[in-house]
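Final report, closing paragraph on structural work. Over the funding period we assembled a curated collection of sequence-structure pairs, and we close with a single example.
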Amino acid sequence: MKLVKGYLGSDLQMEGSLESKESIRIDATYIGSVLSEHSVIVGALGKVKGHIQSPVIKIDGWVEGDLNATKLVEVLGNAHIEGDIITPIGGLKMQIGGKFEGKLIMNSAK
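Its predicted structure, as stored:
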């Protein structure tokens, strides 16, 4: 797995629009959209209010907003997601304990 290049630590509170060609890990409180060309990870301490778009999205924290992945959305055991998940068929992985409230939309691969 490719190393995370962008990191927002737990002591940060940010608002805005975040875009990266590399991987991003969020353990901060963040309000706004997140776009990565590689992957987005919301750690157990992370809180995101906004849309997340990336090929691979892993959530172990709290997210209020839609997730749009072109490969995989992984909902880990501490996750709490309020929003829609859009991913290809077979592109959702959920651990026991993860919470998801919203619509699941699975598209065929393009």
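The CA atoms of residues 89 and 106 lie 5 Å apart. The mean pLDDT is 92. We thank the funder for supporting this effort.
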